[in-house]
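<instruction>
Derive structure tokens from the sequence

<record> Sequence and structure tokens follow
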Amino acid sequence: MLELLVVIGIIAVLAVIGISSYSTAQKKSRDAKRRSDLKTIQTALEQYYSICGFRYPTPAGAATKYFSSIYCPTPTQGIMPTVPVDPYTTPYPCGTNTTSCTENNYIICTTLETSGQEFCVQNQQ
């Protein structure tokens, strides 16, 4: 009976270690997706800048801070038909609490789960 309890205890410890490792791996995976998404959005915005008259797009409507798509009106060209969203299905906001995206600049930030730090991309021109 004692041997059975020892085996159950060992299995329980291994299960806890496995679950915590899995949770950490999921967080790292979501953070990697966030970084990749922001770099992809940055590339699309820089392409827009070079194609569409050396200005950046602004999010649709004055009240919104989110891009749903990135299209150049002149010449008509779809640069990013669907802008990626955060793994928790929330869009990445353009601008911060104190700044907004304009035709001259942009900044897009997200908070990373593993470190709690902000990861931002901004205009390169």
The helical segments are 2-51. The CA atoms of residues 69 and 81 lie 5 Å apart. Residues 2-51 form the longest helix (50 residues).
